[in-house]
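Exam revision sheet. Question 4 asks you to relate a sequence to its structure. Input first:
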Amino acid sequence: MIKKIILIIALLSLSVAGLFAQSEAVSRMRQNLLVLTADSLMGRAAGTIYEYKSARYIEKQFNKSGLTLLYPHPGQDFSILTAKEDTLKSQNVVAIVQGWHPTLKDEYIIVGAHYDHLGQNKLTIDGKETTQIYRGADDNASGVAVMLEVAKMIRAQSFKFKRSILFVAFGAEERGMNGSWYFANRAFAPIDKVSLMINLDMVGRGIDGSDMHTYTFMPHTQLVTLLKDVSDMPLMISPQIHTADYFPSDHHPFASLGIPTLLFTTKLHQDYHTPKDTPDKIRYSTMEHLSQYLFNLVETTANMEAMLERTAFEPKDENSEDLDRIFSQNEVDRPATYMKGDQRRFMQEWVYHYLRYPSQAVEVGIQGRVVVSFIVEKDGKVTNVEVTKSAHHLLDNEALRVIKVSPKWKPASIAGQPVRVKISVPVEFKLTK
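Answer key, structure tokens:
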């Protein structure tokens, strides 16, 4: 009886501690959002002193959480040329949590959010001049607040991350994604070492995480599998996954380089780009759920054996022979097909038909998703079969076994000529109760 009482007290203590930690996270995000939307920052218009002051505040929060700033004051600065030929100054604020692995620390995951907004507007109402402030609470003080919270969480547990994590507050997004374009194309030299870019833009309007959406820009099997794996973790939200794009934002310059990207958002609303986008409409519980989800997503990606596969937008070597290189299914005129069907037919009629759940895995309750990539050669043979996302060696080996003995496919083609394509498929092992 005494042991039972002690156990109940211990569980209650853990629950109270969890609630206390959660309320602290919400408190920090609320405070950061209120500062960024305050009258004193006048809507944070790009190139103004108010955007500059916002950048200094974000810089201060990075320092407070123990992160290292990658660029000295005033940050990663750049210029914007306006339609009136004026030159405005803006900056990205970049902080890093360095990974612990001796070689993988030189590869990166980026978590970014733009901090600028539309500024202010003067109106005359009943003969009296009035200032309208575009506070941008959801767009995008919400994204910045979540980014700062995730940065704090990751810095506190940096020993868990093999790869390095970059946190970037982008300037001048409202001017045409100037900050993110500058970062990706001019300022960050090892851009080819970025495994994943996560963009947080308008993430404060969902109801307890149920309205969270994530967009992969284009189909990407590894990314979709990662997202589902994190959703399967205890107490995690399940964002609605879209293998397309939603709206232009700071993920675009990275996606154009072939870097896998994720846009997280609770979507557009009627207050978007109006003075009605105010702090009182923000749902902080949604932001808290997202920050916990992102921590697990970043940790999982940071500890993968290899970087995520590049997309079809990856720049190609101009000196390579076009028909000898490996394409993705999205780049060719006619994709490779299996029995006149796509990958889904291959999975249904071949993989899952011949897949056998390893008895050892069943005995100890091992389940999960394995991502396997392979090349369909010009003659339709399946080669170079390898695991690109592991679940467990027992499951990995079974997925490899089945796919390696795949019958021939009909090869992909460009202008009627057969070409090689690389395909990735998720193989799911799930135990039923």
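Marking note for examiners. The chain has a mean pLDDT of 91.
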